[in-house]
User: What shape does this take?
Amino acid sequence: MHMLIGSFFTWWYGEGWKQILKSLDLRVKIIADFFSIRLLLRTLTAPWKQIISYSGTSLDSKFRAMIDNLFSRAVGLVVRTLVLLLAIISIVIVGLLTIVEMILWPILPISVPASLIIGFTL
Assistant: This one.
């Protein structure tokens, strides 16, 4: 029994810390994959939904097609930028929660017996 408790504390205050950091790395990779950050950065100025107008032969139709294409690219830029901001916010929140987890990590094994002792004495 003593070896089991000793092994638990050895893992908790040793390998447990490493696993928290590994889980942060995995969570950030999952968020980056979920939001497709690389693809969003690569296609940041691409037209939205690949909507492209083709011009005719007149100057007026060429100008109209250019305005339509610029508008489509602007919409694509805005939407992709907002999604990238949401991804960054998600990564920051996960990072902050991991910091809270690391702060609470050393306290948790002690808090359970302490709360039981306090509960029995009241």
Remarks:
- Residues 2-121 form one domain.
